[in-house]
Specification:
The complex is a heterodimer of chains A (332) and B (305). Chain A has 332 residues and is of the alpha+beta class. Helices cover 26% and strands 33% of the residues of chain A. Chain A is built from 9 helices and 18 strands. The termini of chain A are far apart. Chain B folds into 2 domains: 13-50, no CATH class; 75-301, MetI-like fold, CATH 1.10.3720. Chain B has 14 helices and no strands. Chain B has helices at residues 2-9, 12-50, 67-74, 76-108, 114-126, 129-140, 146-153, 165-194, 197-205, 210-221, 223-239, 242-247, 259-268, 273-301. The longest helix of chain B has 39 residues, at 12-50. Classes of the chains: A alpha+beta (332), B mainly alpha (305). The structure holds adenosine-5'-diphosphate and magnesium ion. The site of magnesium ion has 2 residues of chain A, from helix 1.
C-alpha cells in the first residue's frame, strides 16, 4: 500500500504559474481528485508527483520513500495522459506491453499479463490494430491498459476523459472508479469537471491559482464550502451568492430555495430553463440573479412576481473581502 | 435508386451551374498546365522522339529505331558515368541522411546557442552550388589549398586531390554531403518538433532510456521523413552537377563525371543531340523508377497516421 505525501511543494516558472507551497496526502488505495479551473496548477501538481517536473522546494514521498529527486521510472508509478500518448507506429498490444519490454519482462509473462489486461479493458479483439484505427474511447482504453499492466501501486491520470463525448465520459468514469477499487491502487486524478470529481473521488482537492482552496470529501465541499470560490465551483447550477450585510455575502443553493405565494424574498422571474427532471428558474432579486431549482416542469412566464424562501440551515455566509466562510454566524 | 431519382429531378439550372464550375476550374488550371506542357511534357516527348532518329548532320534525320540505344550500351563512357553516379549516390545519400538526423536530434535539444547552431548547419544550403564549389576548390587546391596546408603542418606531403582519379570522387562526395545535410536536417527537425512531447514522457514513466526511446519510437516515427529525404537525396545525386563544371569538368579521365554532366558534354560540346536525347531518356527512366518506387511501394509500407 502506497500513500502519497506532498509536503510544501513549490514549482514556478520564473515566479509565474505553477504551484506555491502545496501540501496534501493521498491515502493508500483511495482516489484523490485534483479539481480546479484551467491553469490553476493541477497538471503541474500531477507532473511533480510523476517526476516529469522538478520541484523548486518541498518534498514528495510515495509509500514512505522520499522520491523528490528520483526519475519518473524510479518512482514506480503509471500514468495516463490527456492526449493518451499512444505510440502511433505500434499496435494495441505493443503499446500496452511497451513498459514490460523496456523492463525486460520475459515473453511468456508478457503475453499472460497482456491477456489479462486486454480482458479487463475490453480490447482483446483489437490487439492488432494501430491507434489510428481506433475510436476515442478505444484509445482511452489502450492508455488505461498500458497504465494498469505495470501493476504499479500509484496511478496518475491527467484529464483522461476530456477528449470523449458526454455519454462515453460517463461510462468510463464509472469504469475507472471501479477498476481503481478492484485493483486497490492509489489514484490521483486531474479534472476540471466538478461532476467527475464529485462522483469518483474519495477526496477532492480544489485548486485555484496554484494554491489549494479546499481539501475534503465531496460532500464536505458541497455542504461546507470553505470559501465563495468553492461554493461557486461545486454544484450545477452553482450556488447563488448575494450581498448580505455590509461585510458578508450570503450563499444558498438553487435546490434549497423554494417559491412561495406570499412572504419570502420578493423576486421577478426572468427566464426558465427546463431540464427534464427539473427546471431552473432564473429570478431577479434587487438586480442580482438568483437561480432556483424546482422538480418537474415549470410554466411561470417571465415577469411573474414570486417570493423566495429557504431554511436557515441551508445558508452559507462568506466574508466579503477574503471570501472565507464565516463560521458560527447566523443570518438575521 | 434514390440517386437516380434525384438526378432525374435535378433542375436544369443546377446542371448548368456544375458545368460553369468545371469550366472555371479548367480555366484556373490552364496557366499551370500550359507552362508544364510547354517546358516539361513536350520536351520529354520530343526527347523520346529524337532518341529514335539519326543525327542528320548530312541530310535529313532518319528513323533508326533502337540504334542509338544500342550505341549507348556499347559506350564505355556511359557505363563509367553510370557507375560513377551510383557510387556517388551510395556515398552521399546515406551519409548526408545520417548526418542530417544527427544534427537535427542535436539542435532539437534545449541547449544554449541552439538557434545559432541551426543557422550554422543550414547555411551551406543557402549558398549556390557554384559558390560552394569555388570555396571547396580552394580547400582542395594542391600545395597551398586549406587541406594541404593543414596536412603539411602535420608533416604530410601535398596531394592533388581533384587531379587524382582515386580521390576525386571522395572529395566531391564530402563537399556535396556538407552542402546537402543541412537542408535535410530541416525536415528531420520539423518532424521531431511535431512528435508530441507526451510520447517521451510516457516512455520515461515506463523507464525507457533515451537510446531505447530513440530506437523504438523516434526513429520509426521519422521513417516517412527518412523516406522522403532519401528519395530527394537520390534524385539530387543525379541532378546536381554544377560542381563538376567548376571543379573537375568530369576529369581526370571521366573519373568524376556523372550522367547528367555527360549528357551536357554530349549535347553541347560534341553537339550529338540525338545521343544526348537517348541518354536523357535513360536518366528520366531511372528517376521515374525511383519516384515510382516511393509512391507505389514504400509509401504504403511506411505510414502510420
Ligand atoms: N512548462 C511550463 N512553462 C511555463 N509555465 C507553465 C508550464 N507549465 C505550466 N505552466 C503554467 O503554470 C500554470 C498552471 O498550469 P497547469 O498545471 O498546466 O494548469 P492546469 O490546472 O490547467 O492543468 C499555468 O499558468 C501555466 O501557464
Ligand atoms: Mg492541465
Amino acid at each position: 500500500m502506497s500513500e502519497i505525501i506532498v509536503n510544501a511543494v513549490s514549482k514556478t516558472w520564473g515566479g509565474v504559474g505553477g504551484v506555491e507551497r502545496i501540501s496534501f496526502k493521498a491515502e493508500a488505495g483511495t482516489l484523490l481528485v485534483l479539481l480546479g479551473p484551467s491553469g490553476c496548477g493541477k497538471s503541474t501538481t500531477l507532473r511533480l508527483i510523476a517526476g516529469l517536473e522538478e520541484v523548486d522546494s518541498g518534498m514528495i514521498t510515495i509509500g514512505g520513500r522520499d522520491v523528490t529527486h528520483l526519475s519518473p521510472a524510479e518512482r514506480r508509478i503509471s500514468m495516463v495522459f490527456q492526449s493518451y500518448a499512444l505510440f502511433p507506429h505500434l499496435n494495441v498490444a505493443e503499446n500496452i506491453i511497451f513498459g514490460l519490454k523496456v523492463r525486460g519482462v520475459g515473453r511468456a509473462e508478457r503475453d499472460e499479463r497482456l491477456k489479462k489486461v486486454a480482458d479487463i479493458v475490453g480490447l482483446s479483439h483489437l490487439l492488432e490494430r494501430k491507434p489510428s484505427q481506433l475510436s476515442g474511447g478505444q484509445r482511452q482504453r489502450v492508455a488505461l491498459g498500458r497504465a494498469i499492466i505495470a501493476e504499479a501501486a500509484i496511478c496518475l491520470m491527467d484529464e483522461p476523459l476530456s477528449n470523449l463525448d458526454a455519454k462515453l465520459r460517463h461510462e468510463m468514469r464509472t469504469e475507472i472508479r471501479s477498476l481503481q477499487q478492484r485493483l486497490g491502487v492509489t489514484m490521483v486524478y486531474v479534472t476540471h469537471d466538478q461532476t467527475e470529481a464529485m462522483t469518483m473521488a474519495d477526496r477532492v482537492i480544489l485548486m485555484r491559482d496554484g494554491h489549494i482552496e479546499q481539501n475534503g470529501a465531496p460532500h464536505e465541499l458541497y455542504s461546507e464550502p470553505a470559501s465563495d470560490f468553492t461554493a461557486r465551483f461545486i454544484g450545477t447550477p452553482s450556488m447563488n451568492i448575494i450581498s448580505w450585510q455590509d461585510d458578508a455575502m450570503l450563499g444558498v443553493r438553487p435546490e434549497h430555495i423554494s417559491l412561495v405565494e406570499r412572504d419570502g424574498v420578493p423576486a421577478t422571474v426572468k427566464a426558465v430553463e427546463y431540464l427534464g427532471a427539473d427546471s431552473i428558474i432564473l429570478c431577479d432579486v434587487k438586480g442580482e440573479t438568483v437561480s432556483v431549482r424546482q422538480t418537474g416542469y415549470c410554466s411561470l412566464p417571465a415577469g411573474t412576481q414570486v417570493g423566495l424562501e429557504w431554511q436557515n440551515r441551508h445558508i452559507h455566509l462568506f466574508d466579503r473581502d477574503s471570501g472565507k466562510r464565516l463560521a458560527g454566524r447566523v443570518a438575521a | 435508386m434514390v440517386a437516380s431519382v434525384m438526378s432525374a429531378t435535378e433542375p436544369k439550372s443546377a446542371r448548368r451551374r456544375n458545368w460553369v464550375k468545371s469550366v472555371n476550374a479548367w480555366l484556373l488550371l490552364l496557366p499551370a498546365m500550359v507552362l508544364l506542357a510547354t517546358f516539361t511534357h513536350y520536351p520529354i516527348i520530343a526527347t523520346l522522339y529524337h532518341s529514335f532518329f539519326s543525327l542528320g548532320r548530312s541530310g535529313p534525320a532518319e528513323f533508326v529505331g533502337l540504334e542509338n540505344y544500342r550505341y549507348m550500351l556499347d559506350d564505355d563512357v556511359f557505363w563509367q558515368v553510370l557507375r560513377n553516379n551510383f557510387i556517388f549516390a551510395l556515398a552521399t545519400v546515406p551519409t548526408s541522411i545520417a548526418l542530417a538526423l544527427l544534427m537535427a536530434v542535436w539542435v532539437d535539444k534545449k541547449i544554449v546557442g541552439r538557434s545559432f547552431l541551426r543557422l550554422a548547419f543550414f547555411t551551406p544550403t543557402v549558398l549556390p552550388m557554384i559558390a560552394v564549389a569555388n570555396i571547396w576548390l580552394f580547400f582542395y587546391t594542391p600545395d597551398y589549398g586549406l587541406l594541404d596546408q593543414f596536412l603539411k603542418s602535420l608533416g604530410f606531403a601535398g596531394h592533388n586531390w581533384l587531379g587524382d582519379p582515386s580521390t576525386v570522387m571522395t572529395c566531391l562526395a564530402v563537399m556535396v554531403v556538407w552542402k546537402e545535410a543541412g537542408f535535410f536536417m530541416i525536415f528531420y527537425l520539423a518532424a521531431l518538433q511535431s512528435t508530441p512531447p507526451e510520447l517521451k514522457e510516457a516512455a520515461s514513466v515506463e523507464g525507457a532510456s533515451r537510446w531505447y526511446f530513440f530506437r523504438r519510437v523516434t526513429f520509426p516515427l521519422l521513417m516517412p521523413t527518412t523516406l522522403f529525404i532519401s528519395i530527394n537525396a537520390l534524385i539530387n545525386s543525379f541532378k546536381l552537377v554544377d560542381q563538376l563544371v567548376i571543379m573537375t569538368k568530369g576529369g581526370p579521365n571521366n573519373a568524376s563525371s556523372l550522367l547528367l554532366y555527360y549528357i551536357y558534354e554530349v549535347a553541347f560540346n560534341f553537339w550529338d543531340t540525338t545521343y544526348a536525347a537517348t541518354l536523357t531518356v535513360t536518366l528520366i527512366a531511372i528517376l521515374a523508377a525511383v519516384a515510382l518506387t516511393k509512391f507505389v511501394y514504400l509509401d504504403r509500407r511506411i505510414h502510420y497516421q
